[in-house]
Write a structure and sequence with these properties.
alpha+beta; Tumour Suppressor Smad4; 7 helices; single chain; Rossmann fold
Length: 298
């Protein structure tokens, strides 16, 4: 098997690019064939991933953050195994793998010597996503966080918290029509998060019961709130202790649809766009993921 490392050189403020020498050290005494490819522009990771078929006997490693993994996933051909090396600023999806190792050299080695599992991924219209998609406060916050993160070398969780506070002082009400589990819900909301994973934004935990192997999205809807109630809810939303709050509602489903009366900001695995209608479908066991032997995934 050949190991293809797709590296986003700007991910993690250059931290991903620093993995080149580490990867070379891991393979120094190995017989495995490997290749390192540095992306050159947005969307390049998807272009690289499209080159490979299952018959090529390769594993594609996304070296970077959630955005890099998102790009690789969206170019991945059917049944081609993928792996994630968390070298970005967020790395929220990697938490779902259930393997903790501070040394990236040891983590890379453990992944190369690891095993394959199948996990779910989401479809939002024609785009795949690994971890999450959100509208409302989250999407607005992510846009601000991207701008701040490019300028200040501080942890992603702090960037996200600062960005959330900046957005909260000028919150935008979001009108949605949510169709889920044979219900049609029209509501003004602060945010709606459609989750495959459990964490986003550098550690926020909107859906603490989410699993990437249960065949279901976990959906968190937060009602439109005044500023003082948002500030009160935010720490609980970070810790995942907001589940019993009356202003929060949860759903589980493998399909849903969201409509908004006008184009609204949407964040998907860290990538931001504007849309007014999104159809979601969960693809159960759709991704072959290479993980360390000690991963908690089955």
């Amino acid at each position: 098997m050949k190991h293809i490392f797709i590296i986003n050189p700007i991910s993690g403020r250059g931290r991903a690019y620093q993995q080149v020498s580490i990867i070379e050290a891991v393979f120094k005494d190995r017989l495995d064939e490997y290749e390192i490819i540095i992306t050159e522009h947005q969307g390049h990771a998807s272009e690289i991933a499209r080159r490979y078929r299952r018959s090529d006997d390769v594993t594609l490693y996304a070296v970077g953050g959630d955005g890099t993994a998102y790009e690789v996933l969206n170019g991945l051909q059917e049944q081609v195994p993928m792996a994630i090396i968390p070298a970005g600023t967020g790395n929220d999806y990697y938490r779902m793998i259930g393997y903790r190792e501070k040394s990236l050299e040891k983590l890379i080695k453990a992944t190369v010597e690891g095993r394959e599992v199948t996990v779910d991924y989401g479809l939002a219209n024609d785009r795949r996503f690994l971890n999450m998609m959100a509208l409302g406060l989250d999407a607005e916050t992510n846009q601000v966080a991207q701008d701040i993160g490019k300028k200040l070398p501080i942890p992603r969780s702090f960037v996200y918290a600062i960005s959330a506070l900046a957005v909260i002082v000028r919150p935008k009400k979001l009108d949605i029509q949510l169709t889920i589990n044979d219900q049609v819900i029209n509501r003004k909301v602060l945010l709606i998060a459609i989750m495959n994973g459990r964490w986003y934004g550098g550690g926020f935990q909107p859906t603490p019961e989410a699993s990437i192997q249960d065949g279901l999205f976990d959906v968190c809807v937060v009602d439109d709130l005044p500023i003082y109630k948002i500030l009160k809810l935010l720490p609980k939303y970070f810790k995942g202790t907001h589940v019993n709050e009356s202003v929060v509602e949860f759903f589980k489903s493998d399909t849903l649809e969201i409509k908004t009366p006008k184009l609204s900001a949407v964040t998907c695995d860290g990538e931001t766009s504007k849309q007014d209608m999104i159809m979601f479908r969960l693809i159960k066991d759709g991704l072959v993921l290479r993980v360390p032997q000690a991963s908690t995934l089955l």
